[in-house]
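In this notebook, the sequence line spells out the residues, with the fold written below as integer tokens. This is how one looks.
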Amino acid sequence: MSIDRRHALKLLAAGLSLPALSPFAQTPSAPARLSPADTAFLDDLERRGCMFFLDQASPATGQVLDRAKAFDPPGLRDPRRMASIASTGFGLTALCIAAQRGYISRARVLDRVRRTLRFHHDKMEDHHGFLVHFNDIETGFPYLGSEVSPIDTSIFLCGVLSARAFFRSDPEIQRLATALYHRVDWPWMLNGGDTFAMGYRIDRFIPSRWNHYCEHMMLYLLAIASPTHPIPASSWDAWSRPLVHFQDFTFIGADDPLFVHQYSHAWFDFRNKRDRYANYFDNSVTATRAHEAFCLSLGKPYSPDYWGITASDSQHGYTAWGGPPAHGRLDGSVVPCAPAGSLPFVPEDCLRVLRSLKQTYPRSWGRYGFCDAFHPDADWYDPDCLGIDIGIGVLMAENLRSNFVWNTFARNPEVSTALRLTGFHPA
């Protein structure tokens, strides 16, 4: 069984209705101005990525595979059985994009979303509302050793709430999506502390905690805004916000890959707002620019047209690598979801490198877009693509193009509630 990115990080460390009126109920920002060539590229990337979440999911359960073959011909589903609830969460949102864009018929998406919510509500085992990270795609039975995961449950719920907001006229989706969110007993996962436990296994909590800045902002926001089992808003202040300094860049972060600056931003629109600590959108802009500069500082093969490293597959297995500061066995590989996940932050540079990667290395481009990672100098192209890595690229590409995910997700009234309770205000 492959190792997930959060486990890899821990190993490295060891070695429905309209939103309520609020200061955030403002006119959405205009979408980015893109050239016809940029738009055509992003449309191809999104269309292919969205098809992953249709093809590589069970029609009966809606669960989405953690990974699948990148270069199989159309019409085949990977025979592997391990689904990821995070992949499923990205998939629910990607299916909404597909319906909105016309990549997949609205009727087909509606049927798939209903089936997904039914299975996860009626048949999937839960623990105080939280779900196990990896499960059998058809039965939902947990994979041996997989943890009950608050962060992956949160990613799943972001997809669930995206579907609730998109299909506002469907009573079954409204009911099931609301029930899935409301049943989560968030205080249970605090395990007596102010910050969340990293997870739960069999009969004990994982001792490490979500206690410093990373991708977990969605976890705390969903929990604080819960209408049924909320945690205190003070938990937002309980996790640390260390600073990273690299060259002329300073930003909130830690010894984590670039994806930690992307995931919560896929759904929560942090533009033009800040809490007492930071404007987190601007922080991710700086983190992305610092990451590009870091890659260029490594020298060849990295260049303005070849950069981007975040937790991904490698020639030697799944690894958490990147920087700054440097971590992992950096060997000249490139990971396309690193710039793809930062498209709204630094559009010009991220579009340039993504289009260059596709044009210069056509062997990296397959059925669902880019393979997960590749190292041309070593003649290595990952045979797989990963749902979460495809997902972050699809969602952020659409946010760049239209703000669709941000605007749709913000229709959930809990979003403005969360931002208000945690002290956000217009920047």
About this structure: The CA atoms of residues 68 and 252 lie 34 Å apart. Confidence is low (pLDDT under 50) at residues 1-23. The two ends are 45 Å apart (CA to CA).
